[in-house]
Structures are given as structure tokens and as C-alpha cells.
């Protein structure tokens, strides 16, 4: 089992601690959090070992799970890599693209594995259909959340939209050509609502909307491609696939058939793939263990985390 330690014991850090404690792939050695009073309370309540410093924790583990505020990701990751520890870093990978590139370079030089916590890649609604998403040409995403002070230290693009940016980059096999975006601050000092249009070199267009001051929560994405429409509800864990195929010689009398202006007929098929229940955070952590032990590339690599941040920053620069 891989020895793992957690940096950061906030809301998400506590979830990671619990899951790593339960995991059959890791041995949880303990955690470190600079907010001593809260850290001692958590250690006492759950029985986790509390280290006195980052350095003390790094000396005791093989893997570091970095669940600290984004502003500290770079320093924590750098220290971990220099100590020879593999790193799992919550999204976004770092505060700036320059920091992310530096972490990538250092990890490569030290032969260290790294994964970024873009957890929606492990959402069962997405994994149920991702192999069906083939050369999408129009993508629409909506990620809306009720206001929560946690996370408002960064723009909504880095807080919420970056999930969808990563998903889109994982299914569009083309370089970004152009970006148009707008964002406004309503409650926070940074933008709370943002909309972006990403144009790719292959002609694909993605329209993304993110808000953290909505009246209801929504996390939906729609992918349009030749003869198919795929819908993913990340919140409700549901997905739907609508396909169009050539009409057979003897169609069923209840078949839904469309005919275009040129007289070409297509039959519509509806498919609701089976969505297997899972714990996405546990899955991302355990697939990272697989990557370390099998010497394979993590599902969300440091490079992919960097590219998601790069596009996010391009969007922010439009404001």
C-alpha cells in the first residue's frame, strides 16, 4: 500500500481524509494543516495523526494529497516533488500557468507522478457516455451554484467553469483557435458569473456558462455531433444519447422518422446508458494509485491540468 498524507483539512480535505482512510490502496499516515485549532479538533475527533509541519509529513509518505487553497498549491507541490513524493493536486493545478509549467517540469525531472483533481472526469454520468462522444462540433455547458463564500478567493472560471473546460478539452481533439468571454462581479471581488465561447481549429464551438450566485444548482453539458446528441447531467448523474441513423427498408410503425429538405430520411433512436453509482473522489484517488504502481499516465495528468488552467486564464483575460 502507498503511504499517503493530506495537506489541508478544510471541507474537501476532510472528505479526502475519510476516503483515504477507507481505501484499500493507501495507508493514511496523517495530515497537516496550519490552522492549528481546527487541525487538532479534527485529529481528536477522527483519530488521524496530525503532523507538526509539511516537512515532517513529507518525510513519512510516498504520496501527498494537496487539498489546500489554490494560492498555496505551487509551494506545497514543489516541496513534495523535491522530497520525492508523488502529488495529487486539487483543481486548479496552481494559481498561474507559469506555476503549473514549473511544477510539470520539476515533476518530469524528478520522475514524479502527478494528477489533478478534475473530479468530473470520474462522474458516472460522463464515464457512461464518454466513449460515444466522437468529434463533437457544438458543446453547451451550464454550471450554476447557489452562493457559498468558500471558493470566492478566485474567479468563478477557476472555481466552477474549469470543470467544464477540462471535460471539453478531453473530448475535443483540436487546438483552441479563439475565445470570447465576459464576466461580472456581483457579490465577490472576483467575477461571480461568466460566459465563454471557445472556438477550436477543427470548427468545434463550445459555449460555457458558470454562475455561483444562482437560485438553484445545475451542472449540465450537451454535445452535438454528426447524427447524435449526447446530454450529461453531472448533478443528477444521468445521461441520454439521441442518435440518428438511416431509415431501414421496413421501419417499425412506431419509429420516429425525420426528413430533411433534400428528402433524406433519418430514424431517431433514444438511449439511456446505465450509469453505475460510484464515489468519484475515491475513484480519482485510486486510479492515481494505479498510475503510480503500474508506471502509467494518470487519467488527469499535470499537462492536462495545465492546459485547463491555460484556457481558463485566456477566458479571464477577456474580462
UniProtKB/TrEMBL annotation:
<feature type="domain" description="GFO/IDH/MocA-like oxidoreductase">
    <location>
        <begin position="156"/>
        <end position="216"/>
    </location>
</feature>
<dbReference type="InterPro" id="IPR036291">
    <property type="entry name" value="NAD(P)-bd_dom_sf"/>
</dbReference>
<dbReference type="Pfam" id="PF22725">
    <property type="entry name" value="GFO_IDH_MocA_C3"/>
</dbReference>
<protein>
    <submittedName>
        <fullName>Gfo/Idh/MocA family oxidoreductase</fullName>
    </submittedName>
</protein>
<dbReference type="InterPro" id="IPR000683">
    <property type="entry name" value="Gfo/Idh/MocA-like_OxRdtase_N"/>
</dbReference>
<dbReference type="Pfam" id="PF01408">
    <property type="entry name" value="GFO_IDH_MocA"/>
</dbReference>
<dbReference type="GO" id="GO:0000166">
    <property type="term" value="F:nucleotide binding"/>
</dbReference>
<dbReference type="InterPro" id="IPR051450">
    <property type="entry name" value="Gfo/Idh/MocA_Oxidoreductases"/>
</dbReference>
<feature type="domain" description="Gfo/Idh/MocA-like oxidoreductase N-terminal">
    <location>
        <begin position="2"/>
        <end position="118"/>
    </location>
</feature>
<dbReference type="InterPro" id="IPR055170">
    <property type="entry name" value="GFO_IDH_MocA-like_dom"/>
</dbReference>
Amino acid at each position: 500500500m502507498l503511504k499517503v498524507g493530506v495537506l489541508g483539512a478544510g471541507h474537501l480535505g476532510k472528505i479526502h481524509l475519510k476516503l483515504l482512510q477507507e481505501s484499500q490502496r493507501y495507508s493514511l499516515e496523517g495530515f497537516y494543516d496550519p490552522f492549528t485549532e481546527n487541525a487538532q479538533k479534527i485529529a481528536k475527533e477522527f483519530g488521524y495523526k496530525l503532523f507538526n509541519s509539511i516537512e515532517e509529513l513529507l518525510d513519512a509518505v510516498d504520496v501527498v494529497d494537496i487539498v489546500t487553497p489554490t494560492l498555496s498549491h505551487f509551494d506545497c507541490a514543489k516541496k513534495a516533488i523535491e522530497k520525492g513524493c508523488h502529488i495529487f493536486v486539487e483543481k486548479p493545478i496552481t494559481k498561474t500557468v507559469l506555476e503549473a509549467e514549473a511544477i510539470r517540469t520539476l515533476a518530469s525531472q524528478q520522475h514524479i507522478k502527478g494528477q489533478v483533481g478534475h473530479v468530473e472526469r470520474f462522474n458516472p454520468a460522463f464515464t457512461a457516455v464518454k466513449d460515444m462522444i466522437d468529434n463533437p462540433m457544438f458543446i453547451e455547458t451550464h454550471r450554476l451554484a447557489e452562493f457559498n463564500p468558500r471558493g470566492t478567493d478566485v474567479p468563478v472560471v477557476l472555481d466552477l467553469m474549469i470543470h467544464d473546460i477540462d471535460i471539453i478539452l478531453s473530448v475535443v481533439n483540436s487546438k483552441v483557435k479563439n475565445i470570447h468571454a465576459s464576466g461580472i462581479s456581483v457579490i465577490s471581488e472576483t467575477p461571480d458569473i461568466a460566459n465563454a465561447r471557445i472556438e477550436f481549429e477543427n470548427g468545434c464551438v463550445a459555449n460555457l456558462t458558470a454562475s455561483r450566485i444562482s437560485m438553484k444548482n445545475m451542472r449540465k453539458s450537451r454535445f452535438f455531433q454528426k447524427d447524435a446528441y449526447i446530454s450529461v447531467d453531472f448533478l443528477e448523474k444521468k445521461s441520454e444519447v439521441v442518435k440518428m441513423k438511416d431509415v431501414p427498408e421496413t421501419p417499425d410503425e412506431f419509429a420516429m422518422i425525420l426528413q430533411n429538405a433534400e428528402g433524406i430520411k433519418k430514424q431517431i433512436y433514444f438511449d439511456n446508458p446505465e450509469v453505475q453509482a460510484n464515489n468519484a473522489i475515491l475513484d480519482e484517488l485510486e486510479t492515481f494509485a494505479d498510475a503510480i504502481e503500474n508506471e502509467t499516465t494518470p487519467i488527469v495528468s499535470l499537462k492536462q491540468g495545465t492546459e485547463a488552467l491555460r484556457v481558463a486564464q485566456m477566458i479571464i483575460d477577456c474580462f
